[in-house]
Amino acid sequence: MNYLLLNFPIHGDHNGKLVALEKRADFPFEIRRVYYVWDTAHDAIRGKHAHRNLEQVMICVRGSCDFIVDDGVNRETIHLNNPAQGLYISNYVWREFTNFSEDCMVVVLASEHYNPDDYIHDYEEFKKSVAKSKK
Predict the structure, then answer these.
(1) pTM of the entire structure?
(2) Are 29 and 93 in contact (CB under 8 A)?
(3) Residues 6 or more apart from 73 whose CB is under 8 A from it?
């Protein structure tokens, strides 16, 4: 499956901790868009789509949640609860996230600007697109 957990270096002292992310040093693409998600109901399911081109790194900067990643054959759940760890998800990977703690905040770094034509919202269409992309 085309995902990876990235561990970011933590810099800290008695004043607190800091994670600095640098282009191409800490993740495999140039950031073109950043957004964040918070105040989400515990059992909500967000995402429920894949992308044709977009790559993303998801960072749970506060609280916790579960990411479900699916390549059309295998499905895995990754629990995020560490602000110094990011979940890299490549294109053609179905993603959902759920099981939000009350204080959960997720920051998403994306490789492309928002483009509604890049989204695949139907799971069956996603599986067909994956098969075509592997030819």
Answers:
(1) 0.91
(2) no
(3) none
Q: Indicate the SS3 state at residue 130.
A: helix
Identity of the amino acid at 51: H
> Which of 40, 48, 50 shows the shortest CA–CA distance to 96?
48
- Tokens 């990411």 correspond to 67
pLDDT on residue 21? 85
Set 11, 14, 42, 49: catalytic member: 49
Q: What is the pLDDT of residues 50-87, one digit of tens each?
A: 999 999 999 999 999 999 999 999 999 999 999 999 99
Phi–psi pair at 75, nearest 5 degrees: -130, 130
| Listed residue (128, 112, 122) closest to 54, CA to CA | 112
Annotated active-site residue 49? The verdict is yes
Q: If pLDDT is split at 50, 70 and 90, which confidence band does 135 have?
A: low
Q: How far apart are CA 46 and CA 120, in angstroms?
A: 14
